[in-house]
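User: I'm putting together a teaching handout on how multi-component assemblies are represented. Below are the sequence lines for each component of a complex, exactly as they appear in our records. Could you produce the 3D structure of the whole assembly as structure tokens, so the students can see both representations side by side? Please keep the chain order the same as the input.
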Amino acid sequence: VTGFRLDPPFGRLIDRARPVTFRFEGRQRSGFAGDTIASALIADGQWLMARSFKYHRPRGPVTMTGYDANALVQVGNEPNVPADTHTIEDGPDVWPQNVAGSLDADRLRHLGLLSKFLPVGFYYRTFFRPRSAWRFWEPIIRRGGGLGRIDPTAPAEHGRYDKAYRFCDVAVIGGGPAGLSAALAAADAGAEVVLVERDPILGGSLNVRRFDAAGEEGTRKAAALIAAVTAHPAIHTMTATTCTGWFADHMLTLVQGDRYVKLRARRTIVATGAIGRSAVFRNNDLPGIVHGAAAQRLIRLWGVRPGSQAVVATCNGDGHGVALGLMDAGVTVAAVVELGLEVPPDPRRDAVRDGGMPVLRANGIVEARAAGNRIGGVVFDAGRPLAFDCDLLCLELGSTPAASLVASGGGTVAYSEAEHAMAVRALPDGMRVAGAVAGACDLETALAEGRVAGEGTAPPDGARNGPANHPWPLFPHPKGKEFVDLDEDLTVADIRNTVAEGFASIELAKRFSTVGMGPSQGRLSALNAVALAAQAAEAPLEGACAWTNRPPVSPEKLGLLAGRAFQPLRRTPMHHRHLEAGAMMMVAGAWLRPAYYGADGDTSIREEATAVRSGVGLIDVSTLGGIDIRGPDAAAFLNRLYTFAYAKQPVGRARYVLLLDETGYIVDDGVACRLADDHFYVTTTTGNSDSVYRAMLRWNAQWRLDVDIANVTAGFGGVNIAGPASRRVLARVTDLDLDAEAFPYLGVRQGTVAGIPCRVFRVGFVGELGYEVHMPASAGEALWDALLTAGAEDGIRPFGVEAQRLLRLEKGHIIIGQDTDGLTTPEEAQMAWAVARKKPFFVGGRSLDTHDRRGLERRLVGFALTDATPPHPAEGHLTLNGDTIMGHVTSVALSAAAGRVIGLAYVAPDLGEPGGRFIIKGPEGRRIEAEVVPLPFYDPDGARQEM
Amino acid sequence: VTPEDFPRRSPVYRRLVDAGATFVERYGAAAASTFPGDRSPPPPVGLADLSPLRRLGFKGRGAFAWLNAQGLAVPEANNRTARTGGILVLRLGDNEALVLDAVDTPDPRIESVMAAAAPAKVYPVPRADTHAWFLVTGPAAPELFATLCGVDLRPHRFDDGAIAQTSIARLPSVVAHDDRGGKPAYHVLADWASAHYLWDCLTEAMATFDGRLLGLADLAVAK
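Assistant: Of course. Below is the structure of the complete assembly, with chains in the same order as your input.
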């Protein structure tokens, strides 16, 4: 800690009992808890914090509010951290950005000498010819991009970001005098208020600005207002929180540390205050040239003496207030220079004179002079050069409203000749402004405006009595380097040249010159750029607007936008048993399913398939949708919804269901199990349970049949125990009679398995004797265990989705979504057998007539390769008739049971009969011959599944 | 008592075991009774798994009349709860209700409801298996929900007895405000198959509020 640190009461935000150390550019620095990186560095005498984007000029903070791009630093692996608002913590390595070599002696610091050869927009015209040149320039330009760096190879350092919702009647943005007053008035009127303040403490300008000569009024008013706000039960205060956007219906986005808050309000009051006006003069970018507010913030909030010898340039009483503050902090004030305007009588001005500080008049600023990498002096034009040595120049030349929320929310902010500033001209519906954001005003006006905005009553008329704005704080210099936009290193000449190039409109001027496109988004440059552009274009300044404002009004980290990753994923009741058995899990719809068990996929799949064909296997089918259809009209409902006939389906029997959309294309399939006259349990494919359920509700909203439709997908787990030994294994743990006659193929029974009440169906997706057992989800794991135990002596083996896909392919069963696309008709898929065309109505039925009239354009057929030599085709490969594309392969596998490579593919209808030959365009364009074969490939009589 | 002693198991029982829960038997399943560590005072926010407890749903045009006939009060309006003894009836729609057994002392009335044969126009739904059941308690509960849910669940906007059918961490959920001993408490019922996901979201969010897992014994003490 150095001699730049002030004693209390200065330094409201720091805790002197808690020293903090960190490293800046490799060197250890210290500060106190509550310090920002910038305040700690300035307390250590270091104003230089960054190098500028284009010319690598030395830069330091200008506002100490996070508004400018000259204090962005790299903290660890995080780039572009605003040093002036980022609170230091023990430990992190902080590095300046855009530095070639060292910050003090940047190797590119003399680039500015070449500025004549780097005019505005030069890169638009320079690097693209010849075309190959870009490859050379791109890496150089990207390296010089000016902002921080991320290390994509570094281990992910994910912070914990989350999001939250908040609700209130009135959102007040800004905790200064107007905001505090508005919050109190709104809460007193019965509203629930959320008060948002960017600083860690409430008070805003009351904490730093000197409203009176003694410097007591702000503190006194702040204490009273903050006490009342804090005590008010209806006001929720969010400090250290930035509002980044206002959206329709008063949805506001707030950044509170690593939390992104969506605030929903009924009314919004914007009381965001004002931003000091920057002056444009030669070398106005030197570290140590700051807005008056920045010096006051350093002194009052962080207890930092910002310099040894200061000059204040002003046009109003606030500048004298700044000088008084500097004097209190022990800074020698070489002069208070009143620029251009006559400063009206002000007690603060008298106090400055009484304090012995020279008060002088000047017409303008000629230039600032450097001493090393910091300001060393300033020269004014007072008819003659008026020069001062100083290491701090405070500018207090008026302000411009901090109205980004208004402008980006759809309001209008335009230049006012009367105010010499931007002014809010129109507001989005339901938004109010109060205090300095509505125009320069004195403290009483700010408080009164806040009050009426909070009450929702009409704003007061009359004089606002605010500090004067300098009408034209732009002082071009023959040698240039008068910066309009410090983010992008744009000077007066750059803006003038932009207009001379024909880009007179401010929107075009922005795009050509890049003014306002830097990290500060024009907060400090917009007003001067608009003024200069208007002057150069000889256009009126009255009513001129800056470029379009869009949210976010201040940067939001990508981590904030991403927040926590909410990605629901469903697990079956047996999920952990699969993991314990070494399953390779795959995502299927919203579910996780075992693809296969073991490390070697091909071997596992083959062995699992063999187990099912020769012994017994067990697969988890809990992911199938399950929908209970109950009521007197249950059968009629299914009859209308699905293609098959269900009216005469016996109780205790399962029947295939095929669902079409209204245009006659296949959308889902499953089985309907009739548990009672008025009760069907219908399954759907894994991915479609929700959409089929919704379709059912939608259709019955029209049909008004007397049924209840309940989606019980999650309520039932399911397994399929399949293979010649499945009956023997299941019999060991069930009270059901599994005899082939008592429980035939497509039979449906309800009974217990391992003491657990279950629904059991004999269905044959994989083509073997098998039982699908559906149990309450809570008992799924226990039932899985019981079946594996019961099957141990028969070598039961769990099998996964991949083996099931092979087994069903051998059996010629299609998978909806794999073997069908969104435009597959039942006829094309050879599923006309599942369509009861004589029914008076079913969904999609009428469209099938239309499809019939058009005729078939393709058919899904089973095929086998005539030569099984690898490489084999894959799913998605095209099928050709000569060189004409007919369709594609939808399923393909090397089948041990069939003894060859088999698959399903779309071909031309005339090639669809067994024996037809066609070509598959395989890997690397290889033409592979295939022959259409009858389906199924395996057990065509169904003897095995019906045994 | 361990969860694997019973065929019926909570979808998050492994999480409870990992957290060191002690279990008690409830209705043929193991419910967490308490967790290790200092259990007093009650935490700002607590999370309990009530999935082993009894619950069932009823749909159909005759459902409310039938529930009334079983001695259970059904709320007058949708998205409200009504209490009969320890049993809470959640009215989820014009023809749909969810019946939750008492958290503390089992209420025998639910057994008769479960055992009774539903007449025509009354369709029982196996909510004990379609939906996991969690209880979020404590003064910080509304703030916890604010990080996961876009509905304002603060007590003065979402009063005792209110129901929100909303999404929590993008998962469709039923939230019912049911204060315990005058302290905020919310039942959360959500997809059984996604219960582990929701549990993880809740516990992760809870950490920032000094939250704690609670068992049935902890709940009884906190009340």
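A couple of points students might notice: Chain B touches chain A at residues 6-11, 14, 29, 51, 59-60, 120-121, 123, 125-131, 143, 146-147, 149-152, 154, 157, 169-171, 191-194, 196-198, 201, 204-205, 208 (CB under 8 Å). Chain B has seven helices and 13 strands.
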